[in-house]
Amino acid sequence: MAKIKNKQETELGFGNKNYSESVRFLNRDGSVNVKRNSIGKHANFDIFHWLITISWTKFIILIVNGYIVVNTIFAFIYYFIGADKFGGIAIGYGLENFMQLFFFSAQTLTTVGYGHIYPNSSFVSTIAAVESMFGLLGFALATGILYGRFSRPKADIEYSSQALIAPYSDHKAFMFRIANQKQNELIEIECQLALAINNPKTKKRDFHFLDLERQKINFLSTSWTIVHPINEVSPILSLTETDLATSDAEFIILIKAINDTYSQTVYSRMSYKPSEIIWNAKFVPLKTNPVGNGTISMNLKDIHLFEKIQESIS
Amino acid sequence: MAKIKNKQETELGFGNKNYSESVRFLNRDGSVNVKRNSIGKHANFDIFHWLITISWTKFIILIVNGYIVVNTIFAFIYYFIGADKFGGIAIGYGLENFMQLFFFSAQTLTTVGYGHIYPNSSFVSTIAAVESMFGLLGFALATGILYGRFSRPKADIEYSSQALIAPYSDHKAFMFRIANQKQNELIEIECQLALAINNPKTKKRDFHFLDLERQKINFLSTSWTIVHPINEVSPILSLTETDLATSDAEFIILIKAINDTYSQTVYSRMSYKPSEIIWNAKFVPLKTNPVGNGTISMNLKDIHLFEKIQESIS
Amino acid sequence: MAKIKNKQETELGFGNKNYSESVRFLNRDGSVNVKRNSIGKHANFDIFHWLITISWTKFIILIVNGYIVVNTIFAFIYYFIGADKFGGIAIGYGLENFMQLFFFSAQTLTTVGYGHIYPNSSFVSTIAAVESMFGLLGFALATGILYGRFSRPKADIEYSSQALIAPYSDHKAFMFRIANQKQNELIEIECQLALAINNPKTKKRDFHFLDLERQKINFLSTSWTIVHPINEVSPILSLTETDLATSDAEFIILIKAINDTYSQTVYSRMSYKPSEIIWNAKFVPLKTNPVGNGTISMNLKDIHLFEKIQESIS
Amino acid sequence: MAKIKNKQETELGFGNKNYSESVRFLNRDGSVNVKRNSIGKHANFDIFHWLITISWTKFIILIVNGYIVVNTIFAFIYYFIGADKFGGIAIGYGLENFMQLFFFSAQTLTTVGYGHIYPNSSFVSTIAAVESMFGLLGFALATGILYGRFSRPKADIEYSSQALIAPYSDHKAFMFRIANQKQNELIEIECQLALAINNPKTKKRDFHFLDLERQKINFLSTSWTIVHPINEVSPILSLTETDLATSDAEFIILIKAINDTYSQTVYSRMSYKPSEIIWNAKFVPLKTNPVGNGTISMNLKDIHLFEKIQESIS
After folding, report:
1. Which of B277, C81, C161, D54 is most buried per CB count within 10 Å?
2. How far is B201 from chain A (nearest CA, A)?
3. Do A115 and D111 touch (CB under 8 A)?
4. Are D144 and D173 within one domain?
5. Domain for residue B187, yes or no?
6. Which residues of D touch C158 (CB under 8 A)?
7. Is residue A179 part of a domain?
């Protein structure tokens, strides 16, 4: 995460167009607000990405529906070949036969194969051999993706609901606070802070990397208050609260860390828009208490707490 | 991707032989145009690499054929042991028996095991026990590779079909444009550009790393135009369109990024030969429009668009 | 593991509160002594982290109990639907039926499906189809986690049971010794040493990074004695054994290496409290002997051996 | 792979003891020649490392034997419970029953479950339920390791069978040649060369990092000749062929690269002892020929070819 600093032309990868309406490059959940449409030969749908990132509810519905659909298709095939080609089946009405063939299909797809119904001709045996093979591959793939969803490296970082601008040393500073939501440990945490802002003179959207008081810490065990000192070299030194709003500013946060469970590098992104920034407030110090055996305890929700301060800053 | 710069002897790893006929080190799909032949003790066939990188069509044909071949082999073994060693089988003509044993084999390999036919002697039971064991291992391995193919980290980067050489600042510049084909996000994208070119004096093939206006961006959300300014320090300052062609030039691109789905480092490679470079043209600015909720929309195919310019450059 | 050195405000990520009672940020097994409590919308329980890191005993108990519980639930469902809806069952007393349905459930969940008992109505067939599907997914997930536990990158580093402070060059030094417990190879081992100590003046807990004689080695084949020279720039130059104890000092060790089996980056952490530090002692040189064929042999437990020295240091 | 250079005390991690007999830290296959013995509480056997690194022959023998042993154990358990507790079994002599129970066990472990023999009491049903559960977990784990063996990142680098010392520029140089044995591509290849040598004055074994003409290349498509110029700063400037042998010198090579199939960082190690170094010889330039379509062809075994030169060097 080496900083590339080029005062004239800092580039974050979002383009530098100044839009007529307000835009937000990063949502608060870290997703990127750009739709890339594709027409023609290159389909841009990435099925693996989709299966890994959809919600658990959607994923389970997908698996269950896929199971029903595949069994229905095979049940129809078996039905049209004829229920009399099966041994052990109780020949009855159409629906009755169909249901029995549907369950024969399920028993074949999952390879449970009770055998009270069994294929009794070469043709249905062939279909059943194909079904059991695809059943094995399909379930194992579903399981692989299930495991992939579980083991996917994530940085579940809790960001303070508001960013603050408050007096700091001789000047003021932009600051926000983060903590690790999960029980795992995040180590070697690095932060990079950038600002996207409309430039009224050039009619372009400028990007500025903002210096941090500290760019890296070794553990994110309690919380970390990330501070951009608004000093002489800061591009926002002269901006007021109104300026930030009218220039459609967006403070973009990139965090990189190591998730200790699997020694994986993980990334987290977030952004604050002017409406999420409180002026003249400071964070309430985090309460961390020893609870015996050398252990310290904290409450995760405390990282959102701040209090207004009297001293006014411009 | 630290740059190693040694004006006398830059080395890319392709050797520095000046070939009598035109060569291309990198294909447009990023594959390397070198065949390494191996004779004797070290076979250089890497079956895992092959299974992961062959096309989906080939992979599925391979799985299906493997399934048929293995079942045929076991069916022959069972047939020569004798169909009378099985319980539940309807003893008939040769082919009839063979087909039943083939399907018994499939039911054993997939562990579906209906049981209407079952091994009825120790010898066939042993063969069946071996088959079911290899069936389990084989299918699971096939599935592992199937999952490996899905989860393989890829950078599906769309390169502009042409590179351009156009006036830029006080001089001219070599430029091309890239975008992410897929829905996933690529972050921390770095580019390195090198030139392979025949040197008429030394009769060797020289390699030069070409400076870029910007070597790294944080997001590849829209597109990125990568620019090599052809200034005083550029090795191609004095070369004309004809020079590039006669010296069999090749512009080699190496891109490194993080695929956000799995936090994996991914690589992409491409090269432009002189016939793929347009002189005196510039890229049409990418149309990115806000579509509500702060979201921006773009069309992927627009990155190929360029227009000829009047101003002539030498 | 770039060092961030800021004499005024070194930050390790544990906060800088000076606690009234003694705390230990890192346990000797490397776990972090901070409890992050979460109330409300964000549950901070990470099931994957938990399943990967619990002991083998707990993991196996969990799998076995899960298997029993799931089968019991399905057995109850089948029982309340009615044993007469099954074919092949020997209808008897309640418990007798229940046990047969319990084993039918197990045969369905594992897809073994002998078939001597089989579902004989659409309703029980549906339940059985669901059970076999979840059985496949559940077992495969359990297996994935089982494999994840095996393949998890770990640095099993043996730390000398005591750290030593002994004369060294013109001054004295803080030192400890490490070795690789396992047969695999650790390469490119880096160490970072930090000190957490109460500052009586500021009533805060200060963090200092301590310089090492050598920060990185290429192989951890035998042992490595890590040395912090207590020279003029060391923050502990003037401290005595009593000072370390009263200021609740903690020497925090962070080790990063590559595990050669899977080319994975692995981390190890440990800390020494004053009670685990011996003054005026030195490590007994490790006995490494050639055992033929160029091979060297060592005993892992020898890394703990030290001997008191006469020369007194203050 | 940052170089740590400390002329007085370079440390590679092998200790600095000067042994009475000749030692070799690294074998030609890259394995490390150090045995770490462990007595007492910490067993240092890493079963995953072992299962991943043993030969294919051993691995397959292990799987097959494990399968036989587990089935034999369960067959004994079933046998002692009594063959009459099973349905469908043909009660006969002891061995006859045992074999049938052995195959019942195999059908349960693999979940093939034909069902012509089935458990007919709660006790044997319980054992069978346990067996099928451990069968599922065991096979899936075996498969995971099988896949782990296939997908394990490896750098299959072919080293020239001899290293050469030959005139080079104004002085001489130590050089060897490498190529990629496999079809995959290795990119961003870095090399580090170190020398372990007995120091007759200090009676210790010194380690020196040796400067390379070039430390990194981008592709290992053809071959790479790695050159250490023996100039004024080289620690071996004044040493003769005899000196290297009597001081038990070992040239230790560490190579790091990216395997392109899975974007994995891979490592390779090798060492040359004095008997594997040819003085006054140079490598035969590698024949690389264009074979049409811009493709270049080479023979892997050519990297071993060298020729003696007339010009004598001391």
Report:
1. B277
2. 38
3. no
4. no
5. yes
6. 42
7. yes
